[in-house]
Amino acid sequence: MRKTLPFFGLWAVLCMVFTSHAWAQGATSARITGVVMTEGEPLPGATVIAVHLPTGFEYGTVTNADGRFTLNNVNVGGPYRITTSFVGFDESVTEGMSLSLGQTLDLPVELRESSVTLEEIVISGSGIFDGNQTGAETKINEETITSMPTVERGLNDFTRLTPQASVGNAAAVNSGAISFSGINNRFNAIFIDGAVNNDVFGLANSGTNGGQAGISPISPDALEQIQVVLAPYDVTLGGFAGGGINAVTRSGTNDFEGSAYYFFRNEDLTGKTPTNNENVERTKLAPYTVQTYGARLGGPIIKNKLFFFANVEVENREEPRPFIIDDYLGGATLADLDAVRQALIDRYAYDPGGYLNNAQTTDGLKILGKLDWNINQNHKLSMRHSYVKGNTKIYPRPSTTYLSFENGGYIFPSTTNSFAAELKSNFGSQLSNNLIFGVTTVRDDRDILGQPFPSIILQDGPAQVVVGTDNFSYSNIVFQDVYTLTDNFNLYKGKHTFTFGTHNEFFKIQNLFTIFSTPQYLFNNVIRDAEQVSGVNRFLNGELPDRVLFGHEQLAPGQSQIRLGDNALNLGPTFNAMQMAFYAQDEFQASRNLKLTLGLRADIPVFLENPPLENTAFNTTTVPLLEQYYDLKGARASNTPNTQVLWSPRVGLNWDVNGDKSTQLRGGAGIFTSRVPWVWPGGMYIRNGLNSSVFFGVNTPIYANPDQWRTNLFNSTSPSGDVDLFVENFKYPQIFRASAAVDQQLPWGLVGSVELLYTKTLNNINVKSVNLKPSETNLQGADDRPRYNWSDANAGRVDPTYTNITLVDNTSEGYTWNFTAQLRKTFPSGLTSGAAYSFTRAYSLFDGLGFINYENWDDVLSVEGKNHPALGRSDFDAGSRVTAFLSYRQSYLEHAATSVSLFLNGQSGQPFSYVYNDNNALTDESNNNSSTNLIYVPAAQSEIVLVDQVNETGDVVKTAAQQWQELDNYLNNDAYLSTRRGQYAERNRSRTPFETVVDLKLAQDFFVETSGGTKHTLQITLDVFNVTNLLNKNWGRRYFVSGGAFPLINFVGFEEGTNVPTFTFNDPGTPYSIVQSGIYSARWNAQLGLRYSF
To answer: Is Isomerase given among the entry's keywords (predicted)?
Structure first.
């Protein structure tokens, strides 16, 4: 608990001092400001009252000596009526405004001396010319949420409206993830009603709790508005380096309003097989059903005083994942795969299940309740609780180079409870406060399918077949308790709005996990008599596997045998941490049309305790050995990093150039500090050489029975296993971000915007394997990269007592830049439209896609070695993106209306890299069985040693010369590789083809209005994701490269007695696959809906 106590004192003092800026850490409100004038002079003492008409909520204040007024903590939505009055003057009444999340509405008021008539003004605001906006942001109101095509009904269906966003397709490395401006999606922050709703542990691609179970944290029927901010120079906003997503839930009003709905889709509402292979028969998916049904209701408990809102939603989903053998690049046939299954049944009485079409299933339940209490004109309290439960059965997605049998999947139950309370207070005309308290508990328990059995990896030429139990799922539990406390205090003095605040997040996390919790056996491809024998055939021939890895708990004092699965409690220590923030800011209204914002924020992450077991042997014996080769920067086993104060100064500008909202310049610069996915520092607690151990065996028989694992695969050495180290002064992710933008009123009512955004990495993770001895040899030939000696524990490792020792440090290498241009227009006829083009280029050293720190290192694609990565294109490099949204509603016949909405998403394909198919045997720097060595692109045949390929009888089926001709042609015809002849391929410099997809929503309403004024509506909807593919079977294609790395050239060994590598080559055709299933796939998916509303 080093260096934490002083910060508790600081936190306590500041919390007493700061007892808001309207939108706090996560935006929940809006603000109305203005100046009251009379005959060109400011009018002090005028009364301004804003009424939220649906609820009767009132917000009141009086103007100051400069005639200025501010109404803070104002609810979003509307409409509002604003009345301004002063003795001896006519009242001014302004109506019709609706406010968006985080908006500041600037309302000029002119009062005239009393007369007979009262003038009423009706206005509406676009929200684009918002005097509070400085950086890039997107606001999504209730109307857009309702009209947007949506099938999955998740937040990403709406946040994809942000031009700078990029959504990973259904089979991408970051499937379903949404990243902003080329930054890791785990560095986003998600707030619902101001409370944290991230998966703070960082395992879900969606970034939300329940994401691993395929469940979104909230139903769209419960949402009122969403805001996405990328560069808010308001220091009250923080906790992210990518994007901040703020959502507020609906509230009840003075009228009872409700809706009941049902949505349905199945195989008849899904397209046939998308393929470029003429030999593949296009077929429907296997029968499946997806159903969603729910209801919402809101209304008054006491009119104008107390309101309720409730929403319940149930979903049952299936998602077939077909395997198309004709697209498979491995050598195994269907008969071979069936023989593998039968061999497991015969030898071990174990059935691994099928492989042709394993349907993923998901069941979910969401319940949300909310109370809003209008205590009085100055104080308003909201309380919301949500319960989300999901259970999913997940199967690995097959590709051209990967296939898993059914029991290689896993089940994932997840339960989330989230509570948020917000008290908004105004004290006179100069003071306001906003207090938010939230509690979120998450219970995730990933488990295996079928009986416990080893995982067996069978290499199959350039592909891989996996049978048996998923070895990440047998021991895998994550429990999270997250407490949020935010308090912001505003002081209004003349042209200044001073903000002082604090935001605090407290975490209690338990993670029970070890890799290889069921033994993982590997059958490699081998070369015999100049012929490659696949791992599939070696298994069928009854050979012994090349190696086995088995991770298990280490024995505690008095413990006689290891426990398996979720009972291995030694693997799951609980740890506590917190992240505090304190900030101060001045918003200076320098003139009527110029606002400057200057603020300073301090983020303070704190580990509240060290791991419970201290590995003194490591620190006294192993550390001196490691320091002979590496600078550990004070890192020690079982020690957490020192507490760091991370400063974030920011400055922002908004200038209404002509004072008439025709031209707006905005921008700013500042530092943003993100949370870190807690799965990374959590490694210090579960991988310290004392909790767990890994058995490593060569030519070890396959043991099918868990009792055999305890006796035959038990590593009794302690300490041993893996160790995660963090440098003493490790810093959380930080970026510097600057932006400049112009918004311009154009002819025909168009509004155009152009924005530049630049991001520079200040602190990101940098991971090294410090148990790997530096290379002492190199390959021979044109490709002369370093070669290591990991497989020989004594020769290649610094301390063979341990397996992987991972050091997590920081790097400042990396940057992104983004250009965005937008056009928007709302027509009075019911037509809303917008279009945008955005280009993002992102460079990084580490992308942090892994969950385990060692995995973050082991997945690095490199030439010089994973400890020496080069700055390269990021996995989150989005390239070009074109978006367009069109929505039109037409009422007719007094009782009917038709709505049509279209969303176009055109984006550059997935970045990927060309690597050797070598399973890391080429450089021997880890026990990873995947391929991560970037290829050398030969300029001539003399720069690569190709060997003849022979069949089972020893006959040459393809000579080295023939292979060179194929390889030479392939390299010349590849747009990127043709430019790299005689050089190494670079990371992520190739891309899958550009993807263009249009989504459609049709809604037909039939409505009647009763004598009491209640409107009853029956609505029939049709949502079609990828309607482009429905129109033409060759349109709407989405592509992926498995793992983002394509194994192009096969490494087969070394020339005898040398370090000269030898290779074979077979033309693989296109390096990418078509995404076969899922909402973000190349098939069209339609959904029918029925809704009743009143």
So the answer is: no
In the chain, domain spans: 20-131, 156-907, 911-1093
Contacts of 838 (CB under 8 A, 6+ apart): 163, 164, 818, 819, 820, 821, 878, 880, 881, 883
**Rounded CA gap, 650 and 653, in Å?**
10
- In eight-state DSSP terms, residue 758 is E
How does pLDDT run across 595-626, given as a tens digit for each residue?
Answer: 999 999 999 999 998 787 889 999 999 999 99
**pLDDT value, residue 319:** 83
Segment 845-878, tens digit of pLDDT: 999 888 899 999 999 999 999 999 999 999 999 9
pLDDT beyond 80 at 115: no
**Counting Cβ atoms within 10 Å, is residue 699 exposed (0-12), middle (13-18) or buried (19+)?**
exposed
Residue 16's pLDDT band (cuts 50, 70, 90): very low
Residue 692: pLDDT band (50, 70, 90) is: confident
Q: Which residues pair with 963 in a beta bridge?
A: none
**Dist CA 635 CA 641 (whole Å):** 8
Copy the structure tokens of residue 325: 């053998």
Compute the distance between CA of residue 77 and CA of residue 993 in angstroms, rounded to an integer.
41
H or E element: which one contains 338?
Answer: helix 334-348
Question: What is the greatest pairwise CA distance in the chain?
Answer: 108
Is residue 1035 within 8 Å of 1029, Cβ to Cβ?
Answer: yes
- What is the identity of the amino acid at 229? V
Amino acid symbol at 599: G
The phi and psi torsions of 103 (rounded to 5 degrees) equal -75, 145
Q: Are 1072 and 1043 in contact (CB under 8 A)?
A: no
- For residue range 1019-1055, list pLDDT tens digits in order: 999 999 999 999 999 999 999 898 899 999 999 999 9
- Selection from 29, 62, 20 nearest residue 45 by Cα: 62
Query: Which contiguous run of DSSP H or E holds residue 99?
Result: strand 92-99
- Of the candidates 186, 26, 181, 227, which has an alpha carbon nearest to the alpha carbon of residue 737? 181
Residue 534's pLDDT is 93
Q: Which residues contact 545 (CB under 8 A, 6 or more apart)?
A: 456, 521, 522, 523, 539, 699, 700, 702
CB 473 within 8 A of CB 448: yes
Architecture of domain 20-131: Sandwich (2.60)
Task: Summarize pLDDT for 819-830 with one digit per residue, the tens.
Answer: 999 999 878 777
> Of 570, 723, 720, nearest to 639 (Cα)?
723
pLDDT of res. 985: 98
Q: Which amino acid is located at 181 in the chain? A: S
- Spatial distance between the Cα atoms of 1053 and 264, rounded to a whole number of angstroms: 54
Return the H-helix or E-strand segment holding 971. helix 960-973
Instruction: Quickly name the fold that domain 156-907 has.
Output: Maltoporin; Chain A (2.40.170)
Contacts of 124 (CB under 8 A, 6+ apart): 96, 97, 98
Choice among 28-32, 79-83, 676-680, 891-895 with the minimum mean pLDDT: 28-32
C-alpha distance from residue 726 to each of 639, 845, 849 (Å):
8, 18, 18
Q: How many CB atoms lie within 10 A of CB 112?
A: 11
Q: What angle do CA 598, 604, 608 make, to 5 degrees?
A: 165
Please give the Cα distance from 148 to 880 (Å, whole number).
Answer: 22
Tokens of 502: 């604090």
Q: Could you tell me the CA-to-CA distances from 515 to 451, 512, 693, 851, 925 in Å, in that order? A: 18, 11, 10, 11, 19
pTM (two decimals):
0.88
When pLDDT is averaged across residues 959-969 and rounded to a whole number, the result is 97
User: Cβ of 225: how many Cβ atoms within 10 Å?
Assistant: 26
Distance in Å from the first CA to the final CA of the chain? 56
Return the C-alpha torsion angle 793, 795, 800, 806, nearest 10.
-90
pLDDT value for 119: 46
